[in-house]
Amino acid sequence: MGAADRHVAEAKRRALSGERLERGLMLSLMGIKEGTPEFYGLGKAAREVSSAVTKDRSYLWGAIGIDFTPCAMSCDFCSMGERWGLVTEGNSFVMGTDEIVRRVGDYVRCGIRWVVLRTNQEYDPDRMLSLIREVRSRVSGRYEIGLNAGEFDARFARDLRDAGAGFAYHSLRLKEGVHTAFDPARRLSTLAAVREGGLDLVHLIEPIGVEHTDGEIVDSYGSILAHGARVSGGMARIPVAGTPLGDLPQVSEARMAKVIALTRLASAGVVEDICVHPANRLAMRFGANVAVIDGGAVPREGAYSGGLWRGVTCGDVKRMFQEEGYTTYSDNG
Predict the structure, then answer these.
(1) How far apart are alpha carbons 79 and 57 in whole angstroms?
(2) What's the distance, CA 209 to chain centroid?
(3) pLDDT the model gives residue 272
(4) Residue 333: what pLDDT?
(5) What is the CB-side half-sphere exposure of residue 140 using CA atoms within 13 A?
(6) pLDDT recorded at residue 329
(7) Judging by beta carbons within 10 Å of its beta carbon (0-12, 13-18, 19+), is residue 6 exposed, middle or buried?
(8) Pairing assessment for the beta strands 67-68 and 93-94 based on DSSP bridges
């Protein structure tokens, strides 16, 4: 047995016994060359841990982007950055309440467990509270609702909880403060506020690109574990023409699968559900049990299309999971 195989076996043993992986072991896993027998051994180990932890249950995540408007923060990877000029007065859009309710209902009927309303930094907080209440009153079913928005404090987190939200998606992005205009300390403050306010935290390693090192990815996941995320995993950076990072290629599905395997093995029983976005079969084979169906205003598109991102439906993602040996939330009642 070579060194890589020994590292994988040790990581699997620790994952199944609830032991954390130290940084050096995590770096060793990320250093395994993609496409090799050791790479597929890593994926097999992570999938076996996923089976033990999740009992082969998969879940669908539904995101609804509700505003395609210019954002002053102008992150280098986001189509809505005001400085990039992709969002104009002629193509900007804010989704109405009835349309949001309709989309949430569609998601719930197709078996989605988590529904997140995504906005840019300037969206009115009071309006968000009103939307959460409206959705909760008009859409019945077994689902959780949350938001992916700007910075907020624990008081607003408690208001969200009281309005019917159960979670918030928030992250300290890779190269925060370098490829974004956000103060990393402020992002960390919001991460703390999510839990202090009684909401569950969802935090992926993101946006993963070819520009990020193994060390950056490992350190990001260490921070995620420290903040007590309920759902984690990885999200790829999608190149958007006209943004500063638009000419850099998208990270490969194999590297994303390796990141997913890392997060599955490093979660040590603390994070049960591991998400990949965009959905890909190899990442599911390497331990992801959650994937995203995205629609509305999408910051990975240079214009507002309004439909489902890349045409990926609930049925598409369910089939992918089922072909990888998982059952879905809706199938489990």
Answers:
(1) 34
(2) 14
(3) 95
(4) 42
(5) 0
(6) 78
(7) exposed
(8) antiparallel
Cα angle value 281/286/292 (rounded, 5°): 50
Nearest 5°: CA angle at 283, between 145 and 109? Answer: 35
Q: What secondary structure, in 3-state letters, does the chain show?
A: CCHHHHHHHHHHHHHHHCCCCCHHHHHHHHCCCCCCHHHHHHHHHHHHHHHHHHCCEEEEEEEEECEECCECCCCCCCCCEHHHCCCCCCCCEECCHHHHHHHHHHHHHCCCCEEEEECCCCCCHHHHHHHHHHHHHHCCCCCEEEEECCCCCHHHHHHHHHHCCCEEECCCCCCCCCCCCCCHHHHHHHHHHHHHCCCEEECCEEEECCCCCHHHHHHHHHHHHHCCCCEEEEEECCCCCCCCCCCCCCCCHHHHHHHHHHHHHHCCCCCCEEEEECCCHHHHHCCCCEEEEEEECCCCCCCCCCCEHHHCCHHHHHHHHHHCCCEECCCCC
C-alpha distances out from residue 285 to 179, 219, 266, Å: 31, 24, 17
C-alpha pair distances (Å), 255 with each of 14, 179, 242, 247: 23, 21, 25, 19
Does residue 252 surpass a pLDDT of 70?
yes
Contact 324, 262 (CB under 8 A): no
Q: Are residues 203 and 169 in contact, defined by beta-carbon separation less than 8 angstroms? A: yes
Tokens of 217: 């990815």
Residue 1 has what pLDDT? 74
Arithmetic mean of pLDDT, 15-28: 96
pTM above 0.85, yes or no: yes
